[in-house]
Amino acid sequence: MIKLYFKYGLPFCSIKVTYKGKEMQLDDILLDTGSGGTVLKMEKVEDIGITIEEDDVIETISGVGGSEFVYKKYLDSISLGDLNIDNFKVEIGVMDYGFDINGILGMNFLKSIKAIIDLERMVIKKSL
Predict the structure, then answer these.
(1) Which of 2, 4, 45, 48 would bridge with 81, disulfide CB 3.0–4.6 Å?
(2) End-to-end alpha carbon distance in the chain
(3) In this predicted model, what pLDDT tens digit does every residue of 57-102 receive, in sequence order?
(4) Which of 29, 73, 69 has the alpha carbon at shortest distance from 51?
(5) Range of the domain at 9
(6) What three-state secondary structure class fits 112?
(7) CATH assignment at residue 33
């Protein structure tokens, strides 16, 4: 089981991302069942070499907070505690939403790990 924590009245967690062999931990990641995709903050992931490249396609995503431009990258892996997915596609964006957030774990990730979210105990675990 992975512990979640409340911030701004919302469930947050920490993740580990690996890209081209470089690894980093990202804190303040929003667990968001209302988001179809997983988005990471551009300024944070640049530290391990995730940057926009000439052949990357820029797209627009929209949500409750408005619209923003993103580009997509495949990570070597993304991990939430011991729940790991290799070769996972994420969106990279500025994420200027008016509060401190380094990413969003969306439904694509949550479904892939077969997540069970227990908000009473503030934990997330894998379905049996």
Answers:
(1) 2
(2) 12
(3) 898 888 766 788 999 999 999 999 999 999 999 999 999 888 899 9
(4) 73
(5) 2-126
(6) helix
(7) 2.40.70.10
